[in-house]
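Issue: copy button drops trailing tokens. Both records pasted manually instead:
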Amino acid sequence: MALDESRENDEVFDDRGLTYIIEKELYERVRPIKVDYVNTHMGSGFNIASNMQQEASCGSSCSSC
């Protein structure tokens, strides 16, 4: 997540007083997207959830990486 200006190939969403911008191609791959602001005793920030598939990761003992 970063500050940016919208471009021709972006989707623009306004929600609860904030404007979100995402490239149309990326949005088609990851939608739906849910953005929440979280404030806990451990800190605060944005929590982003989407349909994006995570790539498999492995530790240093993995031989297939």
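Record 2 (pasted manually too):
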Amino acid sequence: MTHPRAKYEFAFTPVQVRALCVLLAAGLPALGASAFGRVWFGGTIPVVEAHVAAAREFLDPNTASDGSLERLPGVGPTRAGAILQYRREKGPGAFRTARDLEKVRGIGPGTVRKIAPHLAIPRGDI
């Protein structure tokens, strides 16, 4: 009579054991490296002050550089260049509200809604 658990038993071949050891030896340090710096079991998350400052930064499209404008959501080099060009054509104070950005070619109401919270000018009726 066989043991009831006998049908669930299995054995590794020596090649499989070596392969498993190699995988574990390679995988455990990688797992440890990926977990490094993470917070486990209710600890605190480290705060990077530069990220906090960038999140609090408000840009004035009347004075911001093209690099600063590119940090706005949905604004890349092309839209930043269009904002600068519009600003050159209309002069200082071209943007009194965020809604005025819709006058720039390539910027519509959807883009204005995304970037308005990051601007240092009134939102307007968006």
